[in-house]
Design brief:
The structure holds 2 protein chains of 2 kinds.
Chain A (H helix, E strand, L loop, with lengths): L6 H9 E6 L2 E5 L2 E5 L4 H10 L9 E4 L21 H14 L2 E3 L9 H7 L8 E4 L13 E4 L2 H10 L1 E5 L2 E8 L8 H12 L7 E6 L1 H4 L3 H9 L8 E3 L4 H7 L11 H8 L12 E6 L6 E3 L7 E3 L10 H7 L14 E4 L1 H4 L2 H11 L9 E4 L4 H9 L2 H8 L1 E3 L20 E4 L14 E4 L2 H10 L13
Parallel strand pairs in A: 3-4, 3-6, 4-5, 6-7, 9-10, 9-12, 10-11, 15-16, 15-18, 16-17, 18-19
Antiparallel strand pairs in A: 1-2, 2-8, 13-14
Helix pairs in contact in A: 2-3, 2-5, 6-8, 13-15, 13-16
Chain B lengths: L5 E9 L6 H4 L19 H4 E3 L4 E2 L15 E4 L11 H9 L3 E4 L4 H8 L4 E4 L2 H9 L4 E6 L4 E4 L2 E4 L4 H9 L3 H5 L3 H14 L12
Parallel strand pairs in B: 1-4, 4-5, 5-6
Antiparallel strand pairs in B: 1-7, 2-3, 7-8, 8-9
The chains are: A alpha/beta, B alpha/beta.
Chain lengths: ~475, ~210
């Protein structure tokens, strides 16, 4: 009898081309995704070295990081001064290399981690890399996906492989059901806050348990997305019928001639009963509450209604202009942002719109919603969500990474306090001196209406 | 890439945890599709009191007397976490940093260092703390072959995998190296195309 294997073990063996010694394997890479910010430089590097791309048909270039999020933007319009060159260079280099190009005006355009599932670029059992740390999102489909640097991207494109040290493995089992009003974002922030930003250091994490199985694919993408903020190598959720149903008919998913064989293959991709992990964490979903970050690291997060810890980091408190022991509830905000690869999908927009319907953003708050992809935007508009956001006083943007990070150009003013559905509350992440509080889309919407950090469970929002 | 043998240089202490790549090189400092021209933006948010006009912040370690020639950084846990941007490593290398000693590193950053001639060294917390609390400036000697870090009254050894060690020591091109595995890669692809045909059905003309 063969030894019980984890999902990760199965994916790793499926892709192992050679043993390089010392715990390092040569791993076959099925898909490379790149974006204009860190991918164009890799294409340029390959051009200069003359190495060439092994299989251009399995490389996808997407414009998302620096594109303007202004509705009606021009084809080369960037959101930061001088940013156009990233767009024009990516287009030129991608065409020359013969790889897939999903350009700014393509109806499929959007944030790479949002469109990779939408288009079936990411599939269960595939290995996928991208020079972007949030690539771990795609583990939600059972894809072995992780973020790399530009040099490794060149390596993956040139050789179809990467040399990778086999990571340790962790299983996080979330038992029971999440309380109503508690989202995948809250679950992820809860995990990082409980076990620290280094809690998953160097691990491939498999999320499992009743609460995880109950999540939609969009929610699973949110949970896996934040695993990099937990220092994980990557995250995985075993593909199930939810996954197989989600992928049906997507552009790059297996066509009718191969769908049954693929699905049969995917159904084998789960951890065996007695599989062993290096680390095990068990959580009770019923303990989890809506979360908000108070500091400058995603681990510095607390449940709404509780106090900042007494031993809170002073540099973070100073930057955020807060005190230990203080609650962040009712802190006045200047800005609210909904979007990003973390929470820019249709279900995120619906959750926010439910709060916003028939209500107004507080007078002194600038509120912005940027759908994660043009497909999300179109679907939201078909349901009239754009009208809900606009009527409430939200700006409605064109898809891209937008205000998740500052790249120059327009943003919230220095010193402003912003509640954001994004992934990083680092110093200056959303602009010089901007103070970011991470939260779920529902909490962002509730806070935007109240003008201060507010739980969506507040009586103000009782139906 | 310049081969890494031994290095004796001033070590600048950055006594905080979770130094993220947004701090090392803010996105607004990435101005062209290039690996160069980034040193000026290194730690821009901390190094300058007014980043726009490059007014140096006298309180930032690299601006303090005695640290102008620092080629080593010493920091806490999870150094280089956050964004995968290799620009952080390119900025450090262009500035002149050749080694970083920390309690732990972000995985992607660690790998990026080893592809660009910067040696990332993980030491136990107590050893890092003793370096961070030593009267500055400290001069460290790093020997990659022996895997040691030494200073007067300080001696530590560190682990590094054989492959990144070789890349650093010899300044090798990893792509050229992997191309030696092409027969195995070709063999893998032939078998995999049979086993998982749906992996290979993404021709660009279907765009």
């Amino acid at each position: 009898m063969t030894q019980a294997q984890t999902l990760f073990d199965k994916l790793w063996s499926l892709h192992r081309v050679a043993d390089c010694g010392d715990g390092v394997d040569l791993i076959a890479i099925d898909r490379v995704c790149i974006h204009e910010r860190t991918g164009a430089v890799a294409l340029k590097g390959l051009e200069a070295s003359g190495h060439g791309i092994l299989d251009p048909a399995r490389v996808f270039a997407v414009m998302d990081h620096i594109v303007s999020f202004r509705s009606g933007r021009g084809r080369d319009e960037a959101r930061s001064p001088g940013g156009e060159v990233f767009i024009t260079e990516t287009r030129r280099l991608a065409r020359k290399a013969g790889i897939h190009l999903i350009d700014t005006d393509d109806p499929r355009q959007g944030i790479v981690h949002v469109i990779a599932p939408e288009l079936g670029i990411a599939l269960p059992g595939l290995s996928l890399v991208c020079p972007d740390s949030h690539t771990c999102s795609l583990g939600a489909l059972g894809t072995l996906a992780w973020g790399i640097g530009s040099s490794q991207t060149e390596h993956a494109m040139a050789t179809g492989t990467l040399r990778v040290a086999r990571p340790r493995q962790m299983r996080i089992t979330v038992e029971n059901s999440l309380p109503s009003g508690v989202s995948a974002k809250d679950l992820a922030l809860h995990i990082i806050a409980c076990f620290g930003v280094s809690g998953g250091q160097g691990c491939a994490i498999e999320y499992t348990g009743e609460a995880v199985s109950a999540l939609s694919i969009e929610e699973r993408l949110t949970l896996c997305n934040l695993s990099i903020e937990f220092s994980a190598f990557t995250a995985l959720i075993a593909p199930d019928e939810t996954t197989i149903d989600y992928l049906q008919g997507r552009q790059y998913a297996p066509d009718a001639s191969m769908a049954a064989a693929a699905a049969a293959n995917w159904r084998q991709l789960h951890s065996d009963q007695d599989a062993r992990f290096d680390h095990e964490i068990r959580l009770d979903a019923r303990d989890i509450r809506p979360m908000v970050s108070w500091g400058t690291s995603p681990g510095q997060s607390i449940p709404l209604g509780s106090a900042i810890p007494a031993d809170a980091d002073q540099q973070a408190l100073d930057y955020m202009e807060l005190r230990a022991g203080q609650s962040v509830d009712n802190l006045a905000i200047d800005g609210a942002f909904i979007g990003s690869c973390t929470n820019g999908r249709l279900s995120d927009l619906r959750a926010a719109a439910e709060i916003l319907a028939g209500r107004q953003v507080a007078a002194n708050v600038r509120a912005v919603c940027v759908p994660g992809s043009q497909a999300v935007r179109q679907a939201a508009e078909a349901e009239g969500l754009d009208q809900v956001f606009s009527d409430a006083g939200f700006e409605w943007g064109a898809s891209g990474c937008a205000m998740c990070f500052y790249a120059g150009g327009e943003t919230f003013p220095p010193g402003s306090r912003v509640i954001s559905s994004t992934n990083r509350n680092f110093e200056g992440r959303q602009g010089p001196g901007v103070r970011t509080h991470l939260a779920s889309p529902a909490t962002v919407a509730a806070s935007a209406v109240a003008g201060k950090i507010t739980s969506p469970a507040d009586p103000l929002f009782a139906a | 890439m310049e081969p890494f043998k031994t290095l004796t240089a001033i070590a600048a202490p950055l006594a905080i945890d979770n130094v993220d790549t947004d701090q090392i090189i803010p996105s607004r400092e990435m101005k062209s599709v290039s690996r160069s021209g980034l040193a000026d933006g290194l730690f821009a948010g901390w190094r300058y009191t007014r980043p726009a006009d490059r007014e140096p912040n006298p309180d930032f370690i690299l601006n303090k007397p005695g640290f102008e020639a620092a080629q080593i950084l010493v920091s806490g846990e999870n150094f280089g976490c956050g964004s995968s941007r290799e620009h952080a490593v390119w900025a450090l290398a262009e500035y002149g940093i050749r080694a970083i000693v920390a309690k732990s590193f972000g995985d992607i950053f660690y790998t990026n260092c080893t592809r660009n001639g910067i040696l990332p060294i993980v030491l136990p917390g107590a050893q890092v703390d003793s370096l961070l609390s030593a009267p500055p400036p400290v001069e460290l000697t790093i020997n990659l072959a022996a895997q040691t870090v030494t200073a007067p009254g300080f001696e530590a050894s560190f682990d590094i995998k054989a492959f990144p060690k070789r890349l650093l020591q010899e300044g090798l091109d990893p792509i050229g190296l992997t191309k030696l595995n092409l027969p195995e890669i070709t063999h893998f692809l032939q078998a995999d195309r049979q086993a998982r045909p749906w992996v290979y059905s993404t021709a660009p003309e279907s765009d």
